[in-house]
C-alpha cells in the first residue's frame, strides 16, 4: 500500500468516529458514590459483631410481682467468669458446666420440682440472677425451660441488685 492509500484509510476512520455527546453541567454521574456506599455497607456488615446477647443488659425493674419461691421451681444464676455463669438449684447444688448436660439436668430438675408440688399450685419457674450475670446466660436458661415445657404458665426472672 502506498502512503496515499494509508492516509485515505486514516481519514476514513476519523470520519466514522462520532463526537462524544457532552453532558450538561446539571447532570452528575453518581456511579462512584453508589460504589463507595456499597463498599462501606459491606465493610460494616462484615466488621460488625452480630451477637445480640453480648450487647444487651437486663433492664431494671420498676415494679415487681411478689412471687413465692415455695410456689416456683427456682434456679439461681451467678457470675462465673468471663461470659459464663454458675447455674444452681434451690438447695445451691450446681448444675453441670457442660451446656448440653446442664440443659438435661435443668429439665429434670424443673420436672421434679413441678411434680413435687401436687398439693400446691406450682406451675411456674423463677430464675434468680445476679446483676453481673451476662444476659445471654439468663436467656439461654430461659430458652431451655421454654422449649422443654410448653404447658408452663409463667417463667419469672428476678435480678439481685446488691
Automatic annotation (TrEMBL):
<keyword id="KW-0653">Protein transport</keyword>
<keyword id="KW-1003">Cell membrane</keyword>
<dbReference type="GO" id="GO:0005886">
    <property type="term" value="C:plasma membrane"/>
</dbReference>
<feature type="transmembrane region" description="Helical">
    <location>
        <begin position="30"/>
        <end position="47"/>
    </location>
</feature>
<protein>
    <submittedName>
        <fullName>Colicin uptake protein TolR</fullName>
    </submittedName>
</protein>
<dbReference type="GO" id="GO:0022857">
    <property type="term" value="F:transmembrane transporter activity"/>
</dbReference>
<keyword id="KW-0812">Transmembrane</keyword>
<keyword id="KW-0472">Membrane</keyword>
<comment type="similarity">
    <text>Belongs to the ExbD/TolR family.</text>
</comment>
<dbReference type="InterPro" id="IPR003400">
    <property type="entry name" value="ExbD"/>
</dbReference>
<keyword id="KW-0813">Transport</keyword>
<dbReference type="Pfam" id="PF02472">
    <property type="entry name" value="ExbD"/>
</dbReference>
<keyword id="KW-1133">Transmembrane helix</keyword>
<dbReference type="GO" id="GO:0015031">
    <property type="term" value="P:protein transport"/>
</dbReference>
Amino acid at each position: 500500500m502506498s502512503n496515499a492509500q494509508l492516509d485515505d484509510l486514516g481519514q476514513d476512520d476519523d470520519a466514522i468516529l462520532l463526537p462524544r455527546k457532552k453532558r450538561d453541567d446539571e447532570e452528575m454521574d453518581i456511579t462512584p458514590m453508589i460504589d463507595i456506599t456499597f463498599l462501606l455497607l459491606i465493610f460494616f456488615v462484615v466488621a460488625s459483631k452480630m451477637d445480640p446477647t453480648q450487647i444487651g443488659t437486663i433492664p431494671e425493674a420498676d415494679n415487681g410481682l411478689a412471687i413465692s419461691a415455695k410456689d416456683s421451681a427456682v434456679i439461681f444464676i451467678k457470675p462465673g467468669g468471663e461470659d459464663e455463669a454458675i447455674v444452681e438449684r434451690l438447695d445451691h447444688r450446681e448444675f453441670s458446666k457442660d451446656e448440653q448436660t446442664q440443659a438435661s439436668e435443668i429439665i429434670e430438675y424443673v420436672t421434679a420440682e413441678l411434680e413435687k408440688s401436687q398439693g400446691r399450685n406450682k406451675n411456674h419457674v423463677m430464675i434468680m440472677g445476679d446483676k453481673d450475670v451476662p444476659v445471654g446466660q439468663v436467656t439461654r436458661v430461659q430458652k431451655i425451660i421454654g422449649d422443654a415445657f410448653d404447658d408452663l404458665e409463667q417463667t419469672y426472672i428476678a435480678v439481685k441488685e446488691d
